[in-house]
Amino acid sequence: MGEIVKKGLAVILSVVLLLGMSGCSEEFWDAIAEITEEQENAEVSMNSVTSNNDSETEFVNSRKSISLTLHNDMLQIQRQTRDSVTLMGEPGTWTIFVYLCGTDLESENGLATMDMGEMLEASTGKDVKFVIQTGGTSGWNNNVVSASKMQRFVISDGEMFLLDEKPLKNMGESAQLADFLYWGIDNYAASNMGLIFWNHGGGSISGVCFDEENRYDSLSLREIDMALLSVFDSMTDKFEFIGFDACLMGTIECANILATYANYMYGSEELEPGYGWDYKAIGDFLGKNQNADGAALGKVVADSFYQRCANIGEGDLATLSVIDLSKIDQVMISFNNYARNLYNATEDQEIFSKVVRNAVNVDNYGGNNKSEGYTNMVDLAGIVHAGASYAEGSEVVLSALNEAVIYSRNGSYHQNACGLATYYPLKIQGSKELSTFGEIAISPYYLAFVDRAAYGAVNYGNVDDYNSSGAFSLWGVLEYLFSPDEELYYEDDEDYWDYYEGYEITGESPLIDFVYGPQLDEDGRYGFVLSEEALNNATSVQANVYVISDDGEDIIEYGISTDIYMDWEKGEFYDSFDGFWFSLPDGQNLAVYIVTEGDGYDIYTSPITLNGVETNLRITHDYINGAIKIDGAWEGIDENGMAAKEVVRLKAGDEIIPQYYAFAIYSDDEYMYEGVPYIFDGEPEIYYNYLPDGEYLYGFFIDDLYGDFYTTDYVIFTVEGEDIYFEE
Q: 622 in a domain, yes or no?
C-alpha cells in the first residue's frame, strides 16, 4: 500500500506547485483543471479505484461500542478491544484521512481550497499522504473539485490525484463517513493513520460537518461512533489520532467516544478562526519525522494553529488541546465520583443555588448570550471548581484531567481553560437537546443533576418528587443495529424528555420575590432586597437599559449593564450605573451583551448588519489599559446548532447598521429595530462615553436556578452631562 497509485487507477492528476503565501495560486488550480479536461477528452474512466462494494456499504449485527455501568456507585467502562494489535502498513508511513465537508467555508471563502493548497505545498515525501473526501458545499473556488459529486483525492509530496468519485451524498450521514473510511483503509492503510473532521462544529450537542446541500445536517457524536464502530473490524490497530479542524469539539463527550478508536484527540474548546489548522506545517513535520507519534504531531498542530491565530490578531480567543485518550477513562471515573457527591449535596436548595451561581460564571465557549445563541459548552475543570466547596473528589478529577491533557495552547481570554469542555444547561434550547445529552453523558449522576434542573424548570422550582431513576435508565450503553437491508440506525429514548416539550421561559419567574423594592432609596439608588427563599433561587443579576423611540411608539433595548452593587450574603442589590455606554464614532449607541467577564477585561457582542448580512460585532473592553477594540464580526450559532467559524475582520468601506431588540409599547409586539448606516473608515474605534442627555429606562434582570428570569418594573433615569438621576 506504499504506492501512490494502485493498479488500475485511470486518472492521475500530477502537478507542479505554484506556491503562494496562502496555498496554491489560481493558476495552479487552472493547471489541474486543464489536465482533468485532457483526461476526460481521452474518455478515461474516473472510477477505477472504488470500495469493495459498488453499492452502499452494508452493516450487519448488533454491537455495543461502549458500555458504562455502575458497581457500588463506581463507574465501570467496557470498550471494544482487539485481541492483538499489528501495524497496518510499513513503519514510518502515514495516512491522514480528511473528511472535508466544505459548506459555506468553501462556497463563500475558499477555505477548503486554501487548505488543500497547503497540503500540496508541504514537503511530505512519498510515505505521508492526505486522503480526502470532498462534498457538502454548493460550490468550490477551484476548477478541480466538483460540487455535484462526492470525490476522493490523495495529496502527497506535492502531487494531487483524483482517485474516485460518486454521486453526491449527505456528508452529515454516518454511512458516508463509514464508506469513506472503509475505502480509505482498504486502499491507503499505513502504520500511522489519522482522521480529521474539517468543517463547522457546534460542540457535543450538534456535532460537526454540517452539509450545506442537505439543510446543514451534521454528524452527531453517536453517528461518528457508529461509523467508527462499523470499520473497527477492518483495522488491526487504532487511529494514531482523530482531530477536529472545527469549532467547539474539544469536549469530554467527544473524547469518550473517540477513546475506543484512537490514541490521541486534537480539538478546540472554543471557536476556531476560518483559516483553521496549518496543513503545510503538519505535512512538513511528518515529512521530516515519519516516526513521530500522535503526541509529537499534536504539539505541532496546536503550536502552528495558535501561531496562525496570533498572526491574524485572533490569538487571544484561541484554544487547542492534545488529549491522551488512554487517560480518559480515569477522568470519567473520577468525574462520576465527584458528580455523585455533587448530586447528593445539591439536594440542599441553598447549596444548589451556590453551585449554579458558580457554574453560570464558568469559562464558556461559543457565544452563550441572547444575541449570538447558545452552545451550552463550558470548561470541564470550571464545572468541577463550581462545586468543589460542596462535593468531595474535585482534586482527583483535576489531577486526572492534567494527566489526560498532555499539551494545550490557550489565548489570553481563556488562560485557565483545562483543554476539555462539557455540556452545562446555561439556557436549554429544547427537549431534543436534553435527549442528545442523555445519550452521550459520561456520568449518570451528572445527567441526573442536569435532568433535575430541567424538571424544576417545568415544575416552578418544585423538585421534591423528582426521581433520578428515569435519567439513570437512559444512560450507559451505546448500541447500534447494522442491517444489510436498512439504514444504519439506533434507538433513542426521546420520549422521556417530553416533559420539557413546550416549556417556555416567562420572564416572570415565580421563584423571585422581595422583602424590599425594587424601588428608589433615600440616596436615589434603585435597588431591592431578595427574600431568603428567592436568594436561594437566584443565580445572577444584571440590568437592562432602554430608550423610547423618537415617535414614542417603541421601547428599544440598549442591552445589559453589569454595574451593580451585589451582596449575595444579604441579598442586597443596587444600581451603580455610571451612565457610560458603547457607541460608534457617529454617535449611535450600540446594543451590547456580555460574552465574557474576564480578569481586567470584558468581551461584549452587539447585533448589527455588516454589508447587509446579520451578524454580531465582538468588542473587548480592556480595563487595565483603558482600551476598547473591535475583534471582528461573528454570526454566532444558527438554528442548526452550527457555530460560524470565521470572525470577519472589518475593512474600510464596510457598512454597519446597528440592530436592537425592541417591542411596541401599545401592543407588546417584538421585533428588531434598525439604526442608520455607518461606513467604517478602517479605524477600529468604539467610543465609551456618557449617554447623550435625555431620558432612559432601567430595569433589573434576575435569573433563577432553572433557566427562567424575572424582570423588574422599569424606572426612568435622566442623563444631564455627567449627572444621572433616577426617578420612579
A: yes
